[in-house]
Amino acid sequence: MAKLKTLRGLPFNLAHSYFSTLNYYLKGYMSDWIVNASYEKGINYLEIDLINDSVTPKELQIVPLVPQTHARKMISHYLLSNGFDKDFINEAKFEIQIKENRVIICNCVIKTVNDNIFRSKGYVEQSYIEFSVIKKESIKTNSTFLNWLKTIFLNN
Asked: N or C: which end of the chain has fewer CB within 10 A?
C-alpha cells in the first residue's frame, strides 16, 4: 500500500525541476521567460497547469512556458516508483507571483483523486537575463512586407 506522505516532496521537486538550469530554451531559463513575458504584458501572476500543459492568463501561453510532457512524465514516474497508480494525481499547477525586482515566487499545488492537497513552500527564483519576448522588429517587418504585398496585388 502506497503512503501519501511520500507525495509531500513532489510539489517542491516539480518546481525545482521546472526552474533548474537544465530547463533552458533559446534565450534564457524559465524564470527569465516568465519575468520578461510578464513585464511585457503587465501581468504579475500566472498559473501553469502541469497536467493539461496550459498557462493562464492566455497572453502568456507561449511555447517556452508550456511544460509540454516533461512534467507529466516526471509525475507518472514519481507515482509509479512510490506504489501509486499513474493517474493518482488529477491536478498539478504552479501558482507564480512576479515581483518588481525580477524575482518570482512559485507555489506548486497538487491534488489527488482522493481530494488530498499537497502544497510546496514558496520556491523563490531570480531572473537575470533580460530580452524581448515579442520581437517588435519582426512585427514591423511583417507589416511592411504585408503593405508591400498589398501594393503589388491590389494595385493591378
From this structure: N
Distance in angstroms (rounded) separating the CA atoms of residues 64 and 143: 25
User: Do 133 and 40 meet the contact criterion of CB atoms below 8 Å apart?
Assistant: yes
Mean pLDDT in residue range 104-132: 95
Backbone angles phi, psi at 26, to 5 degrees: 50, -80
Question: How confident is the model at residue 141, as a pLDDT?
Answer: 43
CA angle 17, 19, 20 (to 5 degrees): 65
Cell of 21: 538550469
Chain centroid to Cα 18, Å, comes to 8
In 3-state terms, the chain is what percent helix, strand and coil (to 5)? 40, 25, 35
Note the pTM of the prediction, 2 decimals. 0.81
Task: Provide the grid cell at 91.
Answer: 491536478
Which residues sit opposite 92 in a β-bridge?
A: 110
Average pLDDT of the segment spanning 24-37: 93
C-alpha cell read off for 117: 492537497
117-119 vs 103-112, strand pairing mode: antiparallel
User: Under DSSP, is residue 155 helix (H, G, I), strand (E, B) or coil?
Assistant: coil
Q: How far apart are CA 89 and CA 87, in angstroms?
A: 5
For residue 126, list its beta bridge partners: 103
